[in-house]
Write a structure and sequence with these properties.
- There is one protein chain.
- It contains 13 helices and 23 strands.
- Strands 2, 6, 7, 8, 9 and 13 form a six-stranded mixed sheet that branches. It has a five-stranded mixed sheet with strand order 3-15-5-4-14.
- The chain is an alpha+beta fold.
- The longest helix has 15 residues, at 55-69.
């Protein structure tokens, strides 16, 4: 387990989807939009066979997995896999690359991937990130099928890192796309509900029922810093971005409703789920961060049932809640500066400076980590906008997806012009945006980076400023 332990320590400190609290780095400030990050290009997908693996190749694959869990790759087995002419096995090489970054084994795996698929991830600028990121981006863009037995073999690799992921992998009938599942560099948060202590083994700790203060009590937070605002009935609550970057998950009661609020730092997306929107007879979920990712989106799960959720859509993908066909309802989350939010919501409350748990939070925990583009694989991206352009996304009454580029929509509203697409309009709230049916009912909406919104909602209709009347 030498390699796994080394990667665990490095990734938890440097590359995980959570935030550390070390000093130094750049001057505290809002992370850049990253909107100018170039779209990646991908080689032609290789031809892929159907059917079972060749028996000799299958044995080599098992040897390769076993050798990795024991701390050193079986090079003879890797050669057999590379010569198999079955590019489906590229997914397994991707998983192995995640665990051996920066090592001699990485070089061997990259060479095996190039021989297996005919595509060299070392080409051009493809390795601006990591070899693992380049390989996985290719695989996602190609959309190759997984090889037979992939879930079981992947489970052996991942459970060597975190045995508590076992319930996720054990559900053979889940809707989890195992190809896209990757490790975020941290372990599972399985602390009991309300536990204020940090994770003893290294996780992203959810914040349950944080203390709230009035707007005056929130003077500690600079007016030009971002909050994520939620309004339920007459109750408005602001969640400071710096606190959300540390916890990435809040369970809280606002008004008459229990909410789970995940924040995926990698996707630029805070969402609010109504935890009491489950069917009768289903226990209200307690949301936690698993330490896993799916195409750079955090994977959340229910602490009680160990059911995995699609964090972006609220649909249960595994476990008892999947079998109960649970999809959590959403309410709007508005991204705004604190000054503008409390101006428009003078009765708002805000999470207390210490979260109610006696903790201190730096103003900029991530220190510009994502400013130069995604640090985890995202594959191909809808080219209509830059990958990290901020959009406000919504599902229209007919179920179709619409996205409004945030800066362009705000500018048009500031000019006194409406922002409308197909009967769905955007209105200002603070210096963020809400969405409603034109002059009517509000629709649940939230911000996200374009790559995230468009990959979970392909075919999204995109508003352009020239469309407004």
């Amino acid at each position: 387990m030498r390699v796994l332990i080394g990667v665990l320590l490095t990734a938890t400190l440097l590359a995980g989807c959570g935030a550390d609290e070390r000093g130094g780095g750049r001057t505290p400030g809002e992370a850049g939009s990253g909107g100018a990050v170039a779209q990646p290009s991908f080689p032609t997908a290789p031809a892929t066979p159907n059917g079972p693996l060749d028996p000799g190749v299958a044995k080599a694959v098992d040897r390769l997995v076993t050798s990795q869990t024991q701390g050193a790759l079986d090079r003879d087995a890797l050669t057999i896999v590379a010569n198999s002419r079955d590019p489906r096995l590229g997914w397994l090489l991707s998983d192995l690359l995640r665990l051996v970054q920066g090592s001699e084994e990485e070089r061997q795996l990259v060479g095996a991937f190039a021989k297996l698929t005919g595509a060299d991830p070392r080409r051009g600028s493809s390795l601006d990130g990591s070899a693992w990121q380049a390989v996985t981006n290719d695989l996602i863009a190609w959309d190759l099928p997984a090889p037979p037995g992939y879930r079981e073999r992947k489970a052996r690799l991942f459970l060597a890192i975190e045995p508590k992921w076992r319930p996720f992998f054990a559900d053979a009938h889940s809707d989890i796309d195992w190809r896209l599942l990757s490790w975020g560099g941290v372990l599972i948060d399985d602390r009991r509900s309300g536990d204020p202590k940090p994770c003893p083994r290294g996780c992203i700790p959810a914040l349950d029922d944080p203390a709230l203060t009035d707007a005056v009590g929130g003077d500690w937070y600079p007016d030009d810093r971002t909050v994520f605002g939620v309004v339920i009935g007459r109750d408005a609550v602001a969640f400071p971005k710096n606190i959300m970057e540390v916890h990435e998950m809040v369970n809280i009661t606002i008004g008459a409703h229990r909410l789970g609020i995940p924040y995926c730092t990698l996707c630029g997306s805070a969402q609010a789920y109504l935890l009491d929107s489950v069917p009768d007879g289903v226990a209200r979920p307690v949301l936690r961060t698993s330490g896993l990712l799916s195409r750079s989106n955090k994977v959340m799960y229910d602490l009680r049932s160990r059911s995995v959720f699609d964090t972006f859509t609220g649909r249960a993908l595994s476990g008892p809640l999947h079998r109960a066909h649970v999809t959590l309802d959403q309410v709007t989350v508005v991204g705004s500066t604190w000054g503008a939010w409390k101006r428009d919501h003078p009765g708002t409350r805000i999470v207390a400076r210490d979260g109610g748990i006696g903790r201190s939070y730096p103003l900029d925990p991530l220190r510009g980590r994502d400013d130069n583009g995604p640090i985890f694989p995202i594959g191909d991206v809808d080219p209509r906008l830059p990958v990290q352009a901020k959009v406000v996304g919504v599902l229209a009454p007919d179920g179709s997806a619409i996205a409004f580029p945030k800066d362009a929509a705000r500018a048009q509203l500031a000019d006194g012009k409406p922002v409308v697409l197909d009967g769905v309009e955007v209105v200002a709230d603070g210096d963020g945006l809400r969405v409603r049916v034109q002059a009517g009912k509000e629709l649940p909406a939230h911000e996200a980076f374009w790559f995230a919104w468009s990959q979970f909602h392909p075919g999204t209709r995109l508003w352009r400023s020239t469309q407004a009347g």
